[in-house]
UniProtKB/TrEMBL annotation:
<feature type="domain" description="Major facilitator superfamily (MFS) profile">
    <location>
        <begin position="1"/>
        <end position="388"/>
    </location>
</feature>
<dbReference type="GO" id="GO:0005886">
    <property type="term" value="C:plasma membrane"/>
</dbReference>
<protein>
    <submittedName>
        <fullName>Predicted arabinose efflux permease, MFS family</fullName>
    </submittedName>
</protein>
<feature type="transmembrane region" description="Helical">
    <location>
        <begin position="67"/>
        <end position="87"/>
    </location>
</feature>
<feature type="transmembrane region" description="Helical">
    <location>
        <begin position="340"/>
        <end position="361"/>
    </location>
</feature>
<keyword id="KW-0812">Transmembrane</keyword>
<feature type="transmembrane region" description="Helical">
    <location>
        <begin position="12"/>
        <end position="31"/>
    </location>
</feature>
<keyword id="KW-0472">Membrane</keyword>
<feature type="transmembrane region" description="Helical">
    <location>
        <begin position="93"/>
        <end position="122"/>
    </location>
</feature>
<dbReference type="InterPro" id="IPR011701">
    <property type="entry name" value="MFS"/>
</dbReference>
<feature type="transmembrane region" description="Helical">
    <location>
        <begin position="271"/>
        <end position="290"/>
    </location>
</feature>
<feature type="transmembrane region" description="Helical">
    <location>
        <begin position="242"/>
        <end position="262"/>
    </location>
</feature>
<dbReference type="GO" id="GO:0022857">
    <property type="term" value="F:transmembrane transporter activity"/>
</dbReference>
<dbReference type="InterPro" id="IPR036259">
    <property type="entry name" value="MFS_trans_sf"/>
</dbReference>
<feature type="transmembrane region" description="Helical">
    <location>
        <begin position="367"/>
        <end position="384"/>
    </location>
</feature>
<keyword id="KW-1003">Cell membrane</keyword>
<keyword id="KW-1133">Transmembrane helix</keyword>
Amino acid sequence: MIARLVAGRTVAALATALIPTGLTLAVIRVTGSALDLGVVLAAEVLPMLLLLPVGGVVADRFPPRRVILVADLVRCAAQVTLGALLLLGHPAIAVMAGLAALTGAAVAFGVPAVSPLVVGVVPAERRLRVNAHIGVAGGVAQIAGPALAGGLTLWLGPGWSFLLTGVLFAGSAVTLGGLVTAPRPATGRAHFLGDLREGWREARRHRWFLISVAGHGVWHLGAGILLTLGPVIAVRSLGGESVWVVVAQAGTVATVLGVFAAPRLRIRRPLAVVAVGAAVYACPLAAFAFSTALPAPVVVVTAAYVVAMLGLGTLMPLWETVVQQRVEPQALGRVDSFDALISYAARPLGLAAAAPVAAWAGAAAPLLTAAALVAVVNLAVLALPEVRQRTTEEAAQPVPV
């Protein structure tokens, strides 16, 4: 049962990782217009952001297995349709944007249902290991997905990349058919706004959650700034495009290692580790900022990014597990949707704001500002007693693997 869950989430992660590269290359081949590319990418992101709170309510009202099943099937249909249209000719940008919007809407319903599904399938003592396995799968997918999508597009054309993506989503949907989830607590059905308010009340009940999520939003904002300005600084000051490739790939590997290590460590204060893991993202922001004035050795910049991504990799399964342990199961989907909404909204904001701010104040200013905010906001959670409190000896034991 657990193996089936992890397999399904692994296939879905790979399918999701194929989409951005495939979509970018497809639009470039169809029109070559940066404006068209921006329209299609925005068409995927905006419905996702608008519908995430709705997806949280749905994930708490209905069995999460069914919600994810429908979301996977919708994404399958959208990707197969786009792939077929690309194989038959050059689809209109409006059609590509519409299918991208349908995909983004499906993501908004699927993401909040994952934690309730894990809680319903996995016993409490095994959740950290399962969350880590899902996290490793996601990290590997982030490495393999763009390469696979790019290779298929260059070799056979963009249509085949989308057909493969659709097949993978169909495979993910198939794995859900054999899952049996534990019965959920019975709750009274309120209207939509009532359910949304109840979910927000549950989120507000946990100070550690709200402050941590604010910190996560700040590091996503910082990531958007770094991913925009980092490649430019690497080319201009650190030795060229190959430097950024080395830094980015080293960071991806570090993320996977961090996720892999999390369940094997003896951690008595998981929320404190989460806070520190997010705060160290200030390191590469500062390293790239200082490199605009005095270029640092490539090994130093790479090491700063590796430390940051190792911290983020470690925090991800810990965070998911703590939220699953401490948040009421009947509100978990809505609480997760608030977390995802802040994170998904903050990174595009960083991507959009980085270049204009850098043009006005120089590249170092937004990077240093983001570094300070990342460190301060994430470390602020350490002031809360419930974060500094030690877990039981049993809970701190590494998970056997």
